[in-house]
From TrEMBL:
UniProt KW keywords: Glycosidase, Hydrolase, Signal
Protein name: Family 43 glycosylhydrolase
GO molecular function: hydrolase activity, hydrolyzing O-glycosyl compounds
Record-linked SUPFAM superfamilies: Arabinanase/levansucrase/invertase
Origin organism lineage: Bacteria, Pseudomonadati, Bacteroidota, Bacteroidia, Bacteroidales
The keyword Ligase is annotated on this UniProt entry: no
Transmembrane segments: none
Length: 466
């Protein structure tokens, strides 16, 4: 009897240990770099869904806050929070602010551009957001508060200035080195917050630029750099920046942040994160690669190291994969480990055309499948203004779905790039399937200008694994 009880206890302990090892495997070291323009997956193999985002660091952990989207509606679902110790592997923490019963963030409302700061005077975490109706005709700036960084935030209502609400939409936030908090809005407005961060103290500057939205500020030494995108709805454009030695100005427009025509490496500005090492600070640009209407599954992020020289700021080249470095080497480009696969070895179903070394189809339901033994699989694709959505699925040898996501192949200008990379999985046999959805990204803005793709093509340049 004692031996049986001992054996049962031992098996139970081993079960708990295995569960812990699996959880650890699912939350750490599944990514070896920061990858731009592809979906990332959390510990549950779900897309990291935190758009229009910001990051706040507490202790040795980074907290990512953003808009949580679906693929069916632009209505506010909630604001999400993820955490990471390395900016590469993200763990879902909480839906920190959910849809309210009614009011500014009630059903069928918009909630966007979430920004979070910790108030030095109170120790409270204060969250700011743009709220609106679904037609974008009722803009307000709202705020919420919480005593813990990743807890349940309480919506407090409108952020007021002299008792009046701010009729603003695209917004950002900036905390200066002295702890003063500022709200940034479209068209070049800066508002200083009161000491408790719960209301506006004064307008610092207004109309510093014309036609700019999605504002973000960084400070190096005694100089401020203020970045904006142009107003092209969810389409990417060439973002630009201003500089000044004081938030009051005068502000001088300096030009584009990335090379002309790259559309800021196919992204829209959202936030700058200072990554501080022992002797220096690397600033990381955080941008969104929107994908309307499938924002939940197909919209991705473009995070790039920023180059600062005097009063000039740039993102001169696109790093597909990189990670923060040390004081002597601020960042390191990382090569993706890959075993290239001849597309002749994939299993095709439906109508596919071979163009050069590429496989192309716009036939709804057409698939390409490849079975491999390894830990990770990726897709290189060709993107242009006729490209659009593919469903990507990974199944294990028992046919269990491990990853199920949507990949957007659209780009306003043609380019070949990484379109999908799985996290590192337990070694084993897997099958990757790419399916043409026969749908494309398209939308209109308030002026009824049409944006997005004009067709349903999916073009596969390569499938690789390791």
């Amino acid at each position: 009897m004692k031996n049986a009880l001992y054996l049962f206890t031992l098996l139970l302990l081993l079960s708990f240990l295995n569960t812990g090892l699996l959880e650890a495997q699912n939350t750490a070291n599944r990514y070896e770099a920061i990858y731009s323009g592809i979906s990332w997956f959390d510990q549950n193999n779900k897309e990291v869904n935190a758009h229009g985002a910001c990051i706040l660091k507490e202790g040795d952990r980074y907290y990512l806050f953003g808009e949580y989207h679906t693929d069916t509606s632009n209505a506010f679902i909630g604001f999400s929070c993820y955490s990471s110790t390395d900016l590469m592997n993200w763990r879902f923490e909480n839906m920190v602010l959910k849809v309210q019963p009614d009011g500014l963030l009630g059903p069928n409302r918009v909630g966007e551009r979430i920004k979070v700061m910790k108030c030095p005077a109170t120790g409270e975490y204060v969250m700011y957001m743009h709220t609106d109706d679904l037609r974008y005709k009722d803009p307000h700036v709202g705020y919420a508060t919480c005593q813990t960084i990743n807890g349940d935030y309480q919506f407090q209502g409108e952020l007021l200035h002299d008792g009046n609400y701010l009729k603003k939409w695209d917004l950002g936030a900036f905390q200066d080195s002295d702890g003063t908090g500022y709200l940034l809005t479209h068209e070049g407005f800066i508002y200083e917050l009161n000491a408790d961060y719960r209301s506006v103290k004064l307008q610092v500057v207004g109309h510093a630029t014309s036609g700019g939205e999605s504002p973000a500020i960084l400070k190096q030494g005694g100089r401020y750099f203020w970045m904006f995108s142009r107003k092209t709805s969810w389409e990417r454009n060439d973002n630009y920046y201003l500089t000044a030695t004081s938030l009051e100005g005068p502000w001088t427009e300096k030009g584009l942040v990335a090379p002309t025509g790259t559309l800021t490496w196919n992204s829209q500005s959202s936030f700058f994160l200072p990554i501080i090492n022992q002797t220096d600070t690397l600033y990381m640009y955080m941008g969104d690669r929107w994908s309307y209407p499938k924002q939940g599954s197909a919209a991705t992020y473009v995070w790039q190291p920023v180059t600062l020289t005097g009063d000039e700021m740039s993102i001169p080249q696109f790093h597909e994969s990189w990670r923060p470095g040390s004081s002597t080497n601020p960042y390191t480009p990382i090569a993706i480990n890959r075993k290239n696969t001849s597309l002749k070895n994939v299993v095709r179903k439906g109508e596919w055309k071979t163009t050069g070394n590429h496989l192309t189809s716009k036939a709804q339901g057409a698939t390409v499948s490849y079975t491999f033994n390894g830990r990770q699989v990726g897709i290189d694709g060709l993107a242009n203004n006729k490209s659009s959505y593919a469903k990507v699925t990974i199944r294990d040898k028992r046919n269990k779905v491990i990853i199920d996501t949507t990949v957007d192949f659209y780009s306003k200008y043609e380019n070949a790039s990484l379109k999908f990379l799985s996290p590192l999985l337990p070694s084993g046999q897997y099958t990757l399937t790419i399916e043409v959805l026969g749908e494309h990204t398209t939308w209109t803005d308030k002026s009824k200008t049409v944006y997005g793709s004009t067709d349903h093509y999916v073009t596969i340049k390569d499938v690789f694994y390791n």
